[in-house]
Amino acid sequence: MNYKRQHINPKIKNLRKKQRFYQYPIFWKFLLFFIIVATFLYFILFFSKLQISEIIVLGNEKIHADDIKSLTWKNIDKKIVSLLGKSISTKSIFIFNSKNTIDDILNNFPNIEDLKIEKNLPSSITLKIKERSPFGVFCEEKNCFLIDHNGVVFESTDDSFMGIILKKELRDGEIYLGENIIDKNIISIISKIKNELFDNFQIDVKEIFVSNLLIFQTSLGWRIYFNPESEIDLQITKMNILLKDEITIEERKSLQYIYLQYKDRAYYK
């Protein structure tokens, strides 16, 4: 009897109808999950209300807004896939890469000092631009460029610009717009000395040569030598004492130079 039962059971099992794959609950769970994900991705990528349709440019003065928008649109329109010779693209605000766009714009527009991009849901972005303002003119041989307070050259100009002229010996002789020619800290030192001379003694600075020393050519024709590697406030104090207590206004007219780069000493002639 036991033998018959064991012999019959496998036959009964073989007679049972096999389930199709769609009859398993796991299949429907997976299908539901796939539909939800596909719907979500379609909503994010292609829903018309979420496609960027407007670019707002603020803060620009010299740079044309249309030029900025044209480059921005190239970063907005993203190709997703190509099917049957046709490309499918999206302008979804959710996948728009602000960082890459900022880098692209800054590389192409050296006049821009800073740029911020804000996403305005559902379908617009705002570009807030800060243009560079000239600190002076950087000249190398016959070529002159506007330079900002960060030491970056950003626009070609001529030496008729009413401002301070900066010069520096360049290794390769090449100047590229957007390049940091003079260190920002050196520009800060130059600005401080320039203001001290004008505010305290009404002396304008005509030209500055930047090297291991800072050589200031005044509008009166004489030069002042500073060491940017040494304590600059001490050198400014020595300059103020000399011009206030030792060198009279009349003597300034025939002055040739003031040396302030030596520690605890100052010379003039």
Q: Which CATH C-level class of the largest domain is it? A: Alpha Beta
- The coarse silhouette is elongated
The CATH homologous superfamily of the largest domain corresponds to Cell division protein FtsQ/DivIB
Largest sheet: 9 strands, mixed
The number of helical runs is 7
Which structural class best describes the helix and strand composition?
alpha/beta
Stretches where pLDDT falls below 50 for ≥5 residues?
A: none
Distance between the termini: 130 Å
The CATH architecture of the largest domain can be given as 3-Layer(aba) Sandwich
| Strand arrangement across the biggest beta sheet | 8-7-6-9-10-11-12-13-14
CATH fold assignment of the largest domain: Rossmann fold
Global mean pLDDT: 87
Q: Encode the helix/strand succession as letters.
A: HHEHEEHEEEEEEHEEEHHEE
Residue share in β-strands = 25-35%
How much helical structure, as a percent, in the residues? Answer: 25-40%
What is the rounded Rg?
Answer: 35 Å
**Number of self-contained structural domains:** 3
Total number of strands: 14
Based on the model shown, name its key terms:
14 strands, elongated, alpha/beta, 3 domains, Rossmann fold, Ubiquitin-like (UB roll), nine-stranded mixed beta sheet
Short description:
The chain is α/β, with parallel strands linked by helices and 269 residues long. 36% of the residues lie in helices and 27% in strands.
Architecture overview:
The protein is an alpha/beta fold and 269 residues long. Helix content is 36%, strand content 27%. The protein contains seven helices and 14 strands. It has helices at 2-15, 25-46, 65-76, 98-108, 184-201, 232-246, 249-252; strands at residues 54-58, 78-83, 86-90, 112-120, 124-131, 136-140, 143-147, 153-157, 165-168, 205-210, 214-218, 223-226, 257-259, 267-268. The strands form three sheets. It has a nine-stranded mixed beta sheet with strand order 8-7-6-9-10-11-12-13-14, covered by helices on one side. A three-stranded mixed beta sheet has the order 1-5-4, covered by helices on one side. Helix 3 packs across helix 4 (98-108) and helix 5 (184-201) runs parallel beside helix 6. The radius of gyration is 35 Å and the shape is elongated.
